Hints:
The protein is an alpha/beta fold and 503 residues long. The protein has 4 domains: 3-177, no CATH class; 179-249 and 293-358, no CATH class; 254-292 and 362-465, Rossmann fold (3-Layer(aba) Sandwich), CATH 3.40.50; 470-503, no CATH class. It is built from 18 helices and 14 strands. The strands form 4 sheets. It has a 6-stranded mixed sheet with strand order 6-5-7-8-9-10. α2 runs parallel beside α8 and α7 (183-202) packs antiparallel against α8. The longest helix is centred in the last third of the chain and has 24 residues, at 329-352. Mean pLDDT is 84; it is low at 5-9, 11-15, 163-167, 169-174 and 315-325.
Amino acid sequence: MSISCANIKRTQSNGNLDFINSEISQWREEIPSKFTYEDSQNSIILFGGLTILQDKLLMSAVKSMKEQYIALPNPDFDSFRTGKAYGNRGQCNPTYFTVGNLVKYLLEVQKNSGMSAEEIVQKYVYVTASGCGPCRFGMYITEYRKALNDAGFKGFRLMSFEHNRVTNTEGEDTLQFPPSFFIRPVKAAMAGDILTLLTHQMRPYEVEVGAVDRAMQDCYDILSVALENRKSLTLALYRCRQVLKRVKLNRLTPKPKVMIIGEFWAAMTEGEGNYNLHRFLESEGAEVIPQPIMNRLLLSMWEYMYFEDQKSGLSTDSGTGYLDFSTPKRKILMGLFRTAFKVQFALYAKMIGLSGYKLPDIEKLARLGKEYFPLDVDGGEGHMEVSHLLESLKHKLSHMVISVKPFGCMPSSAISDGIQSLVVSRYPEANFLSIETSGEGAANFYSRVQMALFKAKQAAKEEFESLEMVESVSEKAHDFSYAPKSDKTGTAAKLLDALKISR
Length: 503
């Protein structure tokens, strides 16, 4: 049951929100009026939920198309508290953070601009990804509406997007953008992925603390200008390479590699939503391997193709609007999309100096994981969590794998983690940690990570010390763009092994 406070009064003291409920009643969801593409021309569209860098680059990309978009600030603990104050009990961690972040932003707009709630409802629209089905029964949009209603923004317009369309959850009320609309945002997301990957490859080895962050800020400025002015991203990324070359690195320090997988938002966000996991691991002496957004897009393509193949001959419905994926056109288009993604990503990576990294082959990962994970199971990251752990073990990609997710995440905690126990039993050398986030449990979270990380540090140290070196080493050991070919796991060990350094 969902309870709504129809006449709620807010008071604020010492930075805390206190609530006085004057009337409590059963809340029922009301779908707002139809929202069309023409309406979007007169509205400010809000979005957010990716990494800080990704959100900013996407905003620069859509600005170049004269659209009015604003990326919300990074969700913080105040966002979480606001989400709990206005939302239902028992929501997942990402919902509290993202719903609360939107409500907090609108309340700040109301306070600072003097606009009425009705004016804000008419002016702003929020776009978000829809739930994955099992994820709290796919009730994301309903939770947003309930919280916005109780915060005084009844009728606020919300749109969710899935593979090829944007909708306000009414079947006929679909906001469809032309395919060309998505080209620059996708390119911006690729560039953001590449910068994120390079950041985590370089920052643990920087000689001067903060040098990588400053260089990445310069790179963001270069890319943002290129996106807003519709200039070549390829040339902009090459300019970024010259900036990154000036950062001094010492990559001969042994550090454990930690791959982060899990529920999309919890594993990707950079902030209090996952207790600043990436920064925490680096502060503890680790090198982080994040999962790029492009992986999620490639997985979505694979899932669409796979499930369409499963129902081949059972349904004649090809209804996907302007993107007609009916067989055989579907296979041709999807094949072209996937090829274009990988070619464009490889070009961008080469220009900036991200070497030795390729986007995953989702088909290969599916074959790797299907012995353990039934591919017909949909929801969350699907087979990817199990496949990533197996890939890491078979190809020595990391010393440790962390699966981070909201508490009680059905696809990740209930399904993937259950299967991971079988994987770990067959691969006793696996250093796998499954850990949940709940907003308030940072101390326990950090403690568990530190205990598992100790084992990873020992493995990285032993691997490094098994090799020999001399004081004078090749300049390649300090070049961020040099990716040594070696069967070792750690960056320092790979360098020593590939450069054949001996005493």
